[in-house]
């Protein structure tokens, strides 16, 4: 996920697009409070835009309170301490409709299911085992490596594992699309991750998905993805209704 933040914008690159790319990374929890952004020159080079475009985007991010800039030897642009991913995710959810949320779920399920089915056909056992080993280090209770649970850390770890699994499809295009769509859904998933029971079910579902991919069972892999996404979307939409009612 981290690499997706700084992929080239291309000819359509504008300050608004750079601003959105970085804002999505911050509000989605992939860039955290205190994280230092690459320099303006590096951002311009990796995103394929002019330095003045990056400068304009950073000014907009500062005006929104997402980024602060410090001068001096250890200066640069940093994610603001006030940039709370959960608060931004709640605002996004309140502004969303049930139709939009469920349409996002349909898109995500279709894309991830296609990747999982291809992974079941193409992945080597050692590749699946590597993902399973990383999954085993994230306890279903929501703690990782004995440290207290942080919903942002949990979501980032799960996003990375899902992306690694889709990458086993050996389709670069599918993987890139998964990366972009995952960045859109991830902030909303962050809202339901605060429930330990939800994290436990997500962990178990991903474990079952790895079982299906390891067994080469494309149908089971696709069905597991659909079940996983359906449950998450239902929880997100239920939370949306409760926020409207509060």
TrEMBL record:
It comes from Agromyces marinus. It holds the Pfam family GntR. Residues 12-82 form the HTH gntR-type domain. Keywords: DNA-binding, Transcription, Transcription regulation. CDD domains: WHTH_GntR (cd07377). This is HTH gntR-type domain-containing protein. InterPro entries: GntR_C (IPR011711), TF_FadR/GntR_C (IPR008920), Tscrpt_reg_HTH_GntR (IPR000524), WH-like_DNA-bd_sf (IPR036388), WH_DNA-bd_sf (IPR036390). SMART domains: FCD, HTH_GNTR.
């Amino acid at each position: 996920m981290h690499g997706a933040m700084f992929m080239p914008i291309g000819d359509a690159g504008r300050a608004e697009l750079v601003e959105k790319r970085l804002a999505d990374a911050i509000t989605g929890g992939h860039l955290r409070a205190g994280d230092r952004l690459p320099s303006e020159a590096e951002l311009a080079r990796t995103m394929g835009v002019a330095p003045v475009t990056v400068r304009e985007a950073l000014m907009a991010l500062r005006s929104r309170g997402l980024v602060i800039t410090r001068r001096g030897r250890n200066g640069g642009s940093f994610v603001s301490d006030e940039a709370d991913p959960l608060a931004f995710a709640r605002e996004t959810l309140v502004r969303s409709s049930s139709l939009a949320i469920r349409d996002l779920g349909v898109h995500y399920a279709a894309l991830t299911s296609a990747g999982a089915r291809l992974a079941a056909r193409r992945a080597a056992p050692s590749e699946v085992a590597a993902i399973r080993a990383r999954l085993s280090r994230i306890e279903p209770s929501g703690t990782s490596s004995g440290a207290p649970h942080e919903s942002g850390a949990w979501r980032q770890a799960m996003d990375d594992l899902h992306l690694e699994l889709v990458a086993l499809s050996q389709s670069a295009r599918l993987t890139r699309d998964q990366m972009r769509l995952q960045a859109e859904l991830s902030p909303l998933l962050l809202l339901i991750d605060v429930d330990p029971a939800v994290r436990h079910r997500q962990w178990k579902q991903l474990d079952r998905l790895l079982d299906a991919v390891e067994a080469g069972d494309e149908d089971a892999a696709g069905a597991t993805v659909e079940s996983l996404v359906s449950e998450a979307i239902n929880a997100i939409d239920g939370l949306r209704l409760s926020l409207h009612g509060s």
